[in-house]
Amino acid sequence: QAYLSYSNVAALTHLARKPGWDITKTLDNVKIWTHEEGAVLSFKVELQVNVPSHVAFSLLSDFSLRQRWDRHFLTCEVLQAVSDEEKIYHVTAPPMTGHQPRDFVILVSLRQPCRPQEPYTVAVRSVTLKAVPPSPEFCRSEILCAGFQIHSNSSSSCTVCYFHQVTSGVMPYLAANLTGSSKSIEDTALECVKFLE
Predict the structure, then answer these.
(1) 162 vs 112: CA distance, rounded Å
(2) Model-level pTM?
(3) Which stretch is the leader sequence (predicted)?
């Protein structure tokens, strides 16, 4: 478990530091970037938020609040509180046209900054839990690497970066978005800003 949580945080940190991100959209306080490497597509959503970084961290690290701003989260329950910094959740997502509803078993790892210039981190990856085998009513999907980095700008504002390495399980939710026929990433980002502020 210690290795899983370490690799969860390390994978997100590594993804965030990769060179070669291309900006695809800029709105008032939201920027969307993409990164392609071989068959792997990642995206980054950067939000400017008028709350202190520690407040954004406490709100974004509690996944039971996620349904308030992310309509891709239908239900979210804690399966196991591994420690103060690690929790395992079971998440269900609504069906997309022509697709079965999906579910995910995820490990969420939280890290506070060790030094002032470091971000708060909320890292997410799929894990296997014997107690929650795949069920016929859902298509069990996988998150390779996702999460938030929260950088302090001032005592009352911060930059929230959401990262996601895209797998085929998440692709139906993003395909329409990246081709421009849907604005779900932007809408979710704006809902997130509203929720945090």
Answers:
(1) 16
(2) 0.90
(3) none
